[in-house]
Write a structure and sequence with these properties.
The protein is built from 17 helices and 12 strands. Helix 15 crosses helix 16. The longest helix is centred in the last third of the chain and has 25 residues. The protein is α/β, with parallel strands linked by helices and 450 residues long. It has a 7-stranded mixed beta sheet with strand order 9-8-7-6-10-11-12, with helices on both faces. The protein starts with a helix and ends with a helix. It is globular. The structure holds glutamic acid. Glutamic acid binds next to strand 3 and helix 15.
């Protein structure tokens, strides 16, 4: 390993020992791009990598809100404006009780390279709060979002930083956040947020974009191997927005999603969650119920529920971890290999621990695709939403979908080319990191010390 890369990883380990998720993503990305650093000694001369792992800016803020019973609550809000070299900071907001700086930083760091890979001019950012949306009333959610935006609004803007959704932040929350931004600024600057409702500037296909993009990327991988998506069984995780989009597109393409998971366990539906509109719609009902239990699906449709287990023991053609970070550990990776799975397609941000990821990548015949490429369709359509907002026009769903398809195809292509350039073969993980990194590095080199 390149000595400079190793020293930067050591620095990050020393400095961020209490933020293991951030250390994990830095190690994964920097290990991948080491061959590029070998070829570019000028990076070390300007200490590019230590700059890359240091957010341009990161801040916390106080978010106070009142519950329906009149009790006050105080949460911490975060925004990390990680890297703005290629465009305004762009990335979602996560509202989840386990949110702390290590989560925000890992997501922000991933976002830099993901956004670069889309080929669109967006920098990397992320934010959120340790607010737990589970069981909160409509009024409580609205008041929390208003208070959150009251603290954040002066630090964001269509050319500065453009937040969007992530876990716990969907169309409803974006609506409340935007309403408060508009009230405070007194201008209709809807390019400040993406994932908006269609009536006030949201893009058609944005809700589906992450799941659709993941399926388009899978199609590229399968085409590379001379296979077709039709008839393939897919093991998914979670039951949120991303999994919902995957199910919709899987149905259209003739593939079958056979598992979902939640904090309570997983369900196995041999006919496919994607087999009927009613089942697909039920994912939205489950999410909106705020119960966060996947058992509800099993009860509703009479399929098997496996309490306390993850779906990685199920035999499927394709495994798509689409729930959350570090969902697949070494023991699961071994199970996946034993099951003879050929396609391991990450979807959630960093769903695999590094040891499991490197183990899977080392299996002959196994194809591993990284989340920062596979799930980039979501933020790509967010960037298309920004374009529509700035031009004050609306593209049809077909136009957006066509563009999304082209973007996913290109992400696969540039990843393949980057890996080949470094003699790594069909290595989609290294390829995505190399291709994403290259553009940001070039921009930073040209912009001088910053
Ligand atoms: N949170 C999503 C992601 O991880 C979407 C970000 C966005 O649309 O800005 O990429």
């Amino acid at each position: 390993m390149n000595a400079y890369v190793a020293s930067v990883i050591e620095n990050v380990k020393r400095k961020h020992g209490s933020e293991p998720e951030f250390v994990q993503t830095v190690e994964e990305v920097l290990t991948s791009i080491a061959p590029m650093v070998d070829k570019h000694p000028e990076y070390e001369k300007v200490d590019l990598l230590n700059r890359m792992v240091e957010p341009e800016r990161m801040f916390t803020f106080r978010v106070v809100w009142m519950d329906d019973g009149g009790n006050y609550h105080t949460n911490t809000g975060y925004r990390c404006q990680f890297n703005g070299a290629i465009g305004p900071y762009k990335g979602g907001l996560r509202f989840q009780k386990n949110v702390y700086p290590g989560i925000i930083k890992f997501l922000g760091f991933e976002q830099i390279f993901k956004n670069s890979l889309t080929g669109l001019p967006i920098g990397g950012g992320k934010g959120g709060s340790d607010f737990d949306p589970a069981g909160k009333s409509e009024g409580e959610i609205m008041r929390f979002c208003q208070s959150f935006m009251t603290a954040l609004y002066r630090y964001i803007g269509p050319d500065i930083d453009v937040p969007a959704g992530d876990m716990g932040v969907g169309g409803r929350e974006i609506g409340y956040l935007y309403g408060q931004y508009r009230r405070l600024k007194g201008t209709f600057e809807n390019g400040v947020l993406t994932g908006k409702g269609f009536s006030y500037g949201g893009s058609l296909t944005r809700p589906e974009a992450t799941g659709y993009g993941a399926m388009y990327y899978l199609q590229e991988v399968l085409a590379h191997e001379g296979e077709d998506v039709r008839g393939k069984t897919i093991a998914c995780a979670g039951f949120g927005n991303v999994t919902w989009g995957i199910c919709k597109k899987a149905r259209d393409l003739g593939a079958k999603v056979v598992t979902l998971s939640g904090p309570d366990g997983y369900v196995y539906d041999p006919d496919g969650v994607s087999s009927s509109q009613e089942k697909i719609d039920y994912l939205v009902t489950m999410r909106n119920s705020g119960r966060n239990l996947v058992q509800d699906y099993a009860d509703r449709f009479g399929v098997a529920f496996h309490p306390g287990e993850k779906p990685w023991g199920v035999k499927a053609d394709v495994v798509m971890p689409s729930a959350m970070q570090n969902d697949v550990h070494m023991e699961h990776a071994k199970q996946i290999v034993e099951n003879g799975v050929k396609y391991y397609i990450e979807v959630a941000n960093m769903p695999t621990t590094n040891d499991a990821l490197f183990y899977l990548m080392g299996q002959p015949g196994m194809i591993v695709a990284p989340s920062k490429a596979v799930n980039a369709g979501g933020v790509a359509v967010s960037a298309l939403e920004m374009s529509q907002n700035s031009e004050r026009l609306v593209w049809s769903a077909e136009e957006v979908d066509e563009k999304l398809k082209g973007i996913m195809k290109n992400i696969h292509k540039v990843s393949v080319e980057a890996a080949e350039e470094y003699g790594l073969g069909y290595n989609l993980v290294a390829g995505a990191n190399l291709a994403g990194f290259k553009k940001v590095a070039e921009a930073m080199m040209e912009q001088g010390a910053f």
